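Support reply, case 0932

Customer input (verbatim):
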Amino acid sequence: MGAGLSKYSELTKLIDEALSIGQQAADKTDDGGTANLDKLVISGLKGVRESTLKNAGINCYKHWSYAGDFVISRSYGQGNKNTAGIEAAKDYLKSKGVDCYVHSQMD
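Our regenerated output:
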């Protein structure tokens, strides 16, 4: 593994843990509600290439408007399930010191 990839191994581990926690939260939630496009965004990575994060095992894509922000490619359902999962994942990452937020967009 190259030096660049090992630099992101802790972030990869934290994201994997957060997504698992998000799935647990989503599994406990009814999938009613609106089908908004809520996504978890990791920020503060200006100058980092999307390919670097993907090579480190982070399934993401570059935010279309903000340099250094990457959208995590994960959904937990359509309505309330997705919201619960994304919010739980964000809360976990924030508790671990990861700069992140939820991007909400009407579909």
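We compared this against your earlier run and they match. Two observations from our side: The chain has one domain: 3-103. The first strand starts at residue 39 and ends at 42. Please reopen the case if you see a mismatch on your end.
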